Amino acid sequence: MSDQPHLLTESDGHVAIVRINRPKVLNALNLDLMRDLAGLLEGFDADDSVRVILLAGGERAWAAGADIGDMATATRADMEQRDQFTQWERIKRIRKPIVAAVSGFALGGGCELMMHCDVIVCSETAKIGQPEINIGVMPGAGGTQRLTRAVGKAIAMDVVLSGRFLSAREAMSHGLVSRVVPREHWYDHALKIAHAIAAKAPISLQNAKESVLNAEEQNLSDGLVRERQLFYELFDTEDQKEGMAAFMEKRRPTFTGK
């Protein structure tokens, strides 16, 4: 277990598990937590024994937003000097797949953190939104940008301007989350998916993740060029040879990350 009380960690095979652990404040995200989370994720990203990261909250809340007490009396200068979004940029640069296990509230910064993950598994109890407008501000860690790319302008405007929450089913219907499962299975199902992904070739996973993310930020022509480069790179890996040999020999491949 981690010695950081707001984050708990464990390993399960090739899956590294991180749990946000501030239940008294519904896992509100403060600067210390985000800094420590970014550091943990970077450590797992550099660890060859880890292939997938599972990021979970609690059953009642994935993360119910930023810690408002951290910011209530801050000025613009205070916020700019704090530069809290540096931690979010560190998380964005993680190359290994991140599976989110989401239950309960995923609001504000919690929704933004969820959208930094790659496969999002939600309990049917999940409530997802960007309600910053209710306290006189707006999303600042990608909420207006990633949400709009995921669900389109009309839904994003509604969620951001009215502060309303999306149910898990609504979120999936609009393309914001990957899967919705019964509340009693939200964590176990996410872990099962993490293990299924971890069984794939590690370098292929990282290249594929990069290419999908590029689709959000690059035009189609540039994205296609980079996709082909990443595809060709994999033919210099041992895992490509193993994967194709196993397919032809009708057996399960053994990937080594080389």
Describe this structure in words.
With 258 residues, this protein is of the alpha/beta class. It has 2 domains: 7-198, 2-enoyl-CoA Hydratase, Chain A, domain 1 (Alpha-Beta Complex); 202-248, Lyase 2-enoyl-coa Hydratase, Chain  A, domain 2, CATH 1.10.12. The protein contains 11 helices and 10 strands. The protein has helices at residues 31-45, 76-82, 85-92, 109-115, 143-151, 153-162, 168-173, 186-198, 202-217, 220-233, 238-248, and strands at 7-12, 15-20, 52-56, 61-63, 98-102, 105-107, 119-123, 127-129, 166-167, 179-181. It has a 6-stranded mixed β-sheet, with helices on both faces. α1 links the parallel β2 and β3 (52-56). α5 (143-151) crosses α6. The chain is globular and about 60 Å long. The two termini are 29 Å apart. 35% of the residues are buried.
Characteristics:
258 residues; 16% strand; 2 domains; six-stranded mixed sheet; Lyase 2-enoyl-coa Hydratase, Chain  A, domain 2; alpha/beta; four-stranded mixed sheet; 2-enoyl-CoA Hydratase, Chain A, domain 1
CA-CA gap between termini = 29 Å
Task: Tell me the major beta sheet.
Answer: 6 strands, mixed
CATH fold type of the largest domain: 2-enoyl-CoA Hydratase, Chain A, domain 1
What is the CATH superfamily label of the largest domain? 2-enoyl-CoA Hydratase, Chain A, domain 1
Helix content: 40-55%
Question: Layout of helices and strands, plus pairs?
Answer:
Blueprint (H helix, E strand, L loop, with lengths): L6 E6 L2 E6 L10 H15 L6 E5 L4 E3 L12 H7 L2 H8 L5 E5 L2 E3 L1 H7 L3 E5 L3 E3 L13 H9 L1 H10 L3 E2 H6 L5 E3 L4 H13 L3 H16 L2 H14 L4 H11 L10
Parallel strand pairs: 2-3, 3-5, 4-6, 5-7, 6-8, 7-10
Antiparallel strand pairs: 1-2, 8-9
Helix pairs in contact: 1-3, 5-6, 9-10
